[in-house]
Amino acid sequence: MIIRDRYAPSPTGLQHIGGIRTALFNYLFARSGEGRFILRLEDTDRARYDEAFVKNLYDTFAWLGIHWDEGPDTGGPAGPYVQSERFGLYKKYALELVEKGRGYYCFCSAERLDRVRAEREAAHSSNAGYDRHCRDIPPAEAAKRAQTGDPCTIRLKIPLGETTKVRDQILGDMEWKNDDVSPDPVLLKSDGFPTYHLANVVDDHLMEITHVLRAQEWLSSTPMHIILYNSFGWEPPAFCHLPMVMGQDGKKLSKRHGATSIDEFRRQGYLPEALLNYVALLGASYEEGREIYTLEELVERFSLDKLNKAPAIFDYKKLEWYNGQYMRMKSDVELAALTLPYSITAGLFGNGIDPTEPTAEQRNTFTAAMPLIKERLVFLHEAPEKLGYLFSEPAIPPAEEFFPKKSDLERTITLLKLGRKLVKPMAESNDEDAEAVAKAASEKAEIKLGDLLMPLRVAITGARVSPPLFGSLRILGAEKSLARVDKALAALGAADSSI
Ligand code: GLU
Ligand code: ZN
Fold first, then answer.
1. Which of 165, 177, 251, 255 is catalytic?
2. Under a CB-based contact definition with an 8 Å cutoff, are residues 103 and 110 in contact?
3. Which of 5, 59, 70, 309 has its CA 20 to 30 A from that of 374?
4. What is the CATH number of the domain that holds 419?
5. Per the domain annotation, does 378 fall within a domain?
C-alpha cells in the first residue's frame, strides 16, 4: 500500500508546537514509506478564519524546511486542497446520505436547539446536545419541506443500539456505544456549508488518505467519523492519535507554560533544526540514548511503533539545549549570517550613515568573532550582547572590577602593566601560542595566570566575564588593544604605562 497522509490544519490560529508535531510525524511517516504527504486547509470555520493564519502556515513550514507533495500551493491530482474551494462538493454527499436513509433533514430553529441543549445540560444528561427531534419525520415530508425552502440542516443518523469499533495504531482497540456518540451531528449547515466532520471525512476519502495521524483531542470525534465512513460505504483510513503534549505541570501545553507559537520561538532566536529535532522526540523514541537526528535520519528511523502512548512533556530547557547544540554545528560564516540580523537590530554596529548596513570591516570582524561565542550561545539574539566590546570601546568599570582576588589597586596596576607587555605578542598569535606567552610570563614573575590576565581582560572587554581573551586580542589587534590598556591604566591612576 502506498501511504497517503495529511496535515489538515484549520487556519484559525498561529502554527504552534502541537500542530507542527502533527505535521512532522505525518511528513516522516509518508517519507519513511515513500508515500505522499499532503497539506489540506480545513477552512470551514469562516468566522474564525483569517488569511494571516494561512500566511503564517506557509511561512512557518518554509522556515522549518518541511515540504508537502500535494497541497494548495504545490497542486496535485486530488485538488483543490482548500476546503472553501470545494464547498460545492459536500452538499452532494450529504444528500446522498439522506437518500440512503443514513442522514436526515432537521428543521429545528437555533432557539430550539439552544433551549434543548441548556435543558439537557441542566439535567446533567450524559448525552447533552440534540434530542433527535426531526429524526422520525417521514422522509418524503421532510424532502418536500426542504425543497420548498424551509430552512434546514442535514444531520447524520447515528445507528442506535449498536457499537462502533476503532483500532487505533497507537492506542489499540476501542469501542463506543453508538448511543453515547454525539447525537446526530449536523453535516450540512442551513447555508449549505459543510461542518468540519463532513468535509474532513469526504476529503480524506476523495484524497485517498490511508492514515490519519492527528492530535488526541480528535479521538472523541473518531467513532462518529467511522460511522460516517460506514454510512457512505467507504473504507475508513487507519487512525493514529498522537500522544498529548503537556507542560511540566502535566497540563496541556499552553501559553501559560511559555512560547507555543512557532513565530515566537523563531523571534526568540531558535534554529529550525533544533525545533524540529526536539519536536520529533515529543512522544516518540528512536534510538536509546541518542538525541540528535537530522531530518533524513528521522525519516530513516520513523515508524508508527516508535510512537508512545504516554503524553509527552514539553521541556523548554531541553529545547534550549538543542538550540545550543545546533549553534555549535554551524560554520562561522553560517552562524554570522544567522546572528547578523539580530545584531543589526540591537545596534551592534552603531548608528553610522546607514545603521542597517555594517561596513565590510565590521562584517569581517563579526565573522571572525564567531568562534569566541559559538560555544556559549543558546539563542541567536545573544550574539550582539556578547560582542559589543569588539565594535565600540567598552566603558571603563570601577577600579575594583579590575582587581584579581585579594589584590589591591597597586598590585592590579603592576599586573596590568605586565599584561600590557604581552599584548602585542599575544594579539599576533594563535590561541595556543598566546597561552604559552602568558604562561611563560606568569611563571617568570611567579604570578598566577588568572591574576595576570584578569586586569587585562577587564581593560580589553570591559568585564570580568567575557568571551575568550586571546581571541579578542587577536580580533581587535595590538594597536587598539594597547590603547584600551593605556586608557584603563590612566583611569586606575597609573603614572605611566611602563613598569
Ligand atoms: N482541521 C482539524 C484540525 O485543525 C483536522 C483534524 C484532523 O486531522 O482530522 O486539527
Ligand atoms: Zn431538528
1. 255
2. no
3. 59
4. 1.10.10.350
5. yes
Closest ligand to 104 CA?
Answer: 2
Domain that holds residue 375: 332-391
Find the residues whose C-beta lies inside 6 A of ligand 1: 8-10, 42, 200, 212, 214, 218
> Which numbered atom of ligand 1 lies nearest the CA of 7?
8
Specify the ligand 1 atom closest to the Cα of 42.
1
Scanning 123-186, the segments in alpha helix (DSSP H) are 139-147
Strand order in the sheet with 172-177: 36-39, 4-7, 211-215, 238-242, 163-168, 172-177
- Give the burial string for 62-82 (b: 16+ CB within 10 Å, else e): eebebebebbbeeebebbebb
User: Is 92 a known active-site residue?
Assistant: no
Please check whether residue 236 lies inside any domain of the structure: no
The number of domains in the chain is 4
pLDDT tens, residue by residue, 445-492: 999 999 999 999 999 999 999 999 999 999 999 999 999 999 999 999
Clarify whether residues 477 and 377 are in a common domain. no
Residue 385 pLDDT exceeds 70:
yes
Atom of ligand 1 nearest to the CA of 218: 6
Among 303, 328, 353, the domain boundary falls at 328
**Residue 19, all three cell numbers:** 500542530
Could you say which ligand is closest to the alpha carbon of residue 25? 1
**Ligand nearest the Cα atom of residue 217:** 1
Domain boundary among 328, 352, 375: 328
Closest of 141, 160, 151, 158 to residue 113, by C-alpha? 151
Residue 64 lies in a domain: no
**Three cell numbers, residue 89:** 462538493
Smallest Cα–Cα separation from 195: which of 45, 39, 6, 40?
Answer: 45
Tell me which long-range contacts 53-56 makes (C-beta under 8 A, separation of at least 24). 53/11, 53/12, 53/13, 53/14, 54/11, 56/14, 56/15, 56/263
Cα–Cα distance measured from residue 301 to residue 317, given in angstroms and rounded to the nearest whole number: 25
Q: 315-357: per-residue pLDDT in tens? A: 999 999 999 999 999 999 999 999 999 999 889 997 655 556 8
Question: Which residue of 84, 214, 216 sits with most ligand 1 atoms within 8 Å of its CB, as the best mutation to test the pocket?
Answer: 214
Distance between Cα 384 and ligand 2 center (Å): 64
Beta-carbon contacts of residue 300 (< 8 Å; ≥ 6 apart): 32
Say how many Å lie between the CA of residue 157 and the centre of ligand 1. Answer: 23
Calculate how far, in angstroms, residue 105's C-alpha sits from the geometric centre of ligand 2: 7
Compute the distance from residue 113 Cα to the ligand 1 centre, in Å: 26
Burial of 489 (0-12, 13-18, 19+ CB in 10 A): buried
Local confidence band at 122 (pLDDT 50, 70, 90 cut-offs):
confident
